Structure formats: structure tokens, C-alpha cells
């Protein structure tokens, strides 16, 4: 197109020169001007075409980015919801069976736990107490939506956020063969070098043992200069891990005082109750000493909830909890007389 235009202009100029209407100088000036104009117009057209192409690529890139982001939300834990809840935990028709076992460990559990409540979970060995709380913590997975925090299924929460905002001490806690510092800081490793925080946690569990090397005292059997602890002392040390984490959304104690005598148990549990006030807390135990101070009591039997209510309500019903309370209450009535009011 440019060649044709140039040819037409040249022919016209040649005709005009022959008729003495245009000089040779005018011819040169016009041809140069036409060439410049054509070049500018060509550049503008090329730039416009290139801009349209880039715009098209930009639209496609944006679409691809959105598709990748959408797929990433499904596959990546970072796309899930940070763990928080403000109202309640709902358990709906929850059943659970361990792999390669035909008998259900939990059967059709339905339960509501309000924010800030202390729930005591009682029952015999194998009744499903520990299984229930591990499901609430997301440590065991359920195939269908049956555990909800403020109506949100537990599997929609980011796992790291869930673990970072909950705290638990299980009956089979690990005795780390390192030092006192490490064993406490397991509750929140960011405080491993915060002596004040770690010592405060020890004081809360009424740890009266004087460690020769303070927080750096080695524990266990690996080193010759290590200090070993009794079962009750290890349990206190494990309990101190709960007091290290700041503002957890949910705290779970699984048989936290099974190796302690009733007097030590009540003293420590009173401190635990003060610390956990207004924090959603689930306390598992064979013993009923803590149950009377709980907001609600849940009694499990063979994987099913057989009773749920307050201490007074369950005493009046005179069923499983009533029998447990009557068989153990003298331990705690005598103990409470020995504990000064706080």
C-alpha cells in the first residue's frame, strides 16, 4: 500500500513538473514529507496493532492467574480459613471407626459446646473420650462434615492455624530427653528463650522440685548428669506447656492428673480453672472431682453419649454419673477441706 501511494505521488509530481507547475525543489520537499508522513502513520498503525495484541495477552494472563488461584485455594492449605470461632462448636451425627477395625469408636455423637464453657468428659477406658477430642483438634479426619466451628466445617480451616490456636495435654504426652526449657516450650516454641514466661508456667503447676541447672537442667536417662522425674512430676511439666501459649481458642486436657494424688490434683486443677476462665476447655478424666466445677458434664459409654448436663441435673437423674460421684465424692470432700480458699 505504501509503494502504491508513493508511486501515485511521484507520477503526479512528474506531471506537474513537466507543466512547470512545480519545481524540482518542491518535488524533493514533497516526496520527503510524504515519506515521513507515511512512516509516521505506519508506526502508529503498528503500535496500535501491537497494543491490541498485548491487551489480548494481558486478558488471557489475567484469566490464567485467576484459574491458578482458584485451583490453589482448593489444593493449598494456605487458601483455607484461619481458625477462629466466636459462638459455639457443633458436633452433628459424628461416628468414627479406626482403620482395620469394624467396631465404631464413636457412634452418632451430637453435642453443642458454647464458647467459653468448661466441659468435663467422663467415661471408662475405651469409651471414646480421647478419640472425640482428637477429632475436635483435627488430628483425626472425618469423611463427612460433622464437626463445625460457628457453622464452618473443621476441614475448611487451615491446619496450621488450627494447631497454633489450640492447646492440648494428652495422657500419653512425650517426655523429651532434653532439658526443662525444651519440655515446657513445646507448648509454644517461640518462647523457648523467654525465661520469665517458662518459669511462670512452672509456678502455675506448683512445681516444687528445685532443678540444679534451672531451666537448662537435663532430664531423662541419656546423660549421666540428667535428672529424672517421678510420674507426677513429669505430668506437671507436661501441664505447664498449656500455660505457655497465649490466648488459645480451645484447650483440651486428657487425664491431666492421673498420676497425682487427690490433694495435688485439686490444687493444680483449681489453678487450671483460673487460667482457663472464659476459654473453651474440655477436661477428660476418670475422676469426678473436676466435674462439679464444669459448666456441663458429658458421660460417654461404648462410644455414645449417655448423659449430658450440669452436675446438679445429673445427680438428680441418678444414673451413671450419680454412681461415679457417689463412689468418689468422699475423696474430694476431704481434700477440699484441706485446700485454702483462693
TrEMBL record:
Subcellular localization(s) per the UniProt record: Cell membrane
Keywords assigned: ATP-binding, Membrane, Nucleotide-binding, Transmembrane, Transmembrane helix
InterPro entries: AAA+_ATPase, ABC1_TM_sf, ABC_transporter-like_ATP-bd, ABC_transporter-like_CS, P-loop_NTPase, Type_1_exporter
Pfam families recorded: ABC_tran
Domain ABC transporter: 89-327
GO cellular component: plasma membrane
Transmembrane residue ranges: 27-45
Gene Ontology molecular function, alphabetical: ATP binding; ATP hydrolysis activity; ATPase-coupled lipid transmembrane transporter activity
Main location: membrane
Membrane topology: Multi-pass membrane protein
CDD domains given in the database record: ABCC_MRP_Like
Protein name: ABC transporter ATP-binding protein
Organism: Cohnella faecalis
